[in-house]
Amino acid sequence: MENQSTSQNDLKSLVKAFAHAILECEEYRTFMQCNEDLERNQEAKNLLIQYQRKQTELQWSGYDATTLDELKDLQMRVKNDETLTKFFSSQEALVDLLKRSNDRISEKIGQTFAQNRQGGCC
After folding, report:
1. What angle do CA 38, 39, 42 make, to 5 degrees?
2. What is the DSSP string of 50-119?
3. pTM for the complete prediction?
4. CA-CA distances (angstroms) from residue 94 to 58, 64, 83, 101, 107?
5. What is the distance of C-alpha 24 from the center of its chain?
């Protein structure tokens, strides 16, 4: 029983060390800084909201040439916004790091560590 408790304590320590390493890595710090920059930039936040709303509108209303043109215009504005570009780039880098970490852990334990679950809740 004591051996199992020691294993659990070792595992908890490893998990805490892993979480700490993620929080201290460059990708995470850069993402958090870009997120803060986005939160402070009301113009960029509004542009992103407009873009997301237009995407939703197009999805719900079906194909409409005018809405599609508006979406393309907003998409170009999003791509040209430095704050949003940095945010999305940092987000992509962090997701890539987490995917690689997941792959490495899965390899070490011989099974899928984290899975992308589809479907509803409960």
Report:
1. 85
2. HHHHHHHHHHHH---HHHHHHHHHHHHHHHH-HHHHHHHHHHHHHHHHHHHHHHHHHHHHTS-SS----S
3. 0.79
4. 29, 35, 17, 10, 20
5. 17
55 assigned to some structural domain: yes
Does residue 82 sit within a domain?
yes
Tell me how far apart the alpha carbons of residues 55 and 67 are, in angstroms, rounded to a whole number.
Answer: 9
> By residue range, what is the domain housing residue 60?
26-97
10 in a domain, yes or no? no
pLDDT per residue over 100-111, tens digit each?
Answer: 999 998 898 888
Query: 7 lies in a domain?
Result: no
Helix (H, G, I), strand (E, B) or coil at 43: helix
CB-CB contact of 62 with 22 (8 Å): no
Q: Write the CB contacts of 116 (distance below 8 Å, at least 6 apart in sequence).
A: none
Mention every residue, 6+ apart, whose C-beta is less than 8 A from residue 70.
54
Counted domains in the chain: 1
pLDDT digits (tens, 9 = 90+) for 37-54: 999 999 999 999 999 999
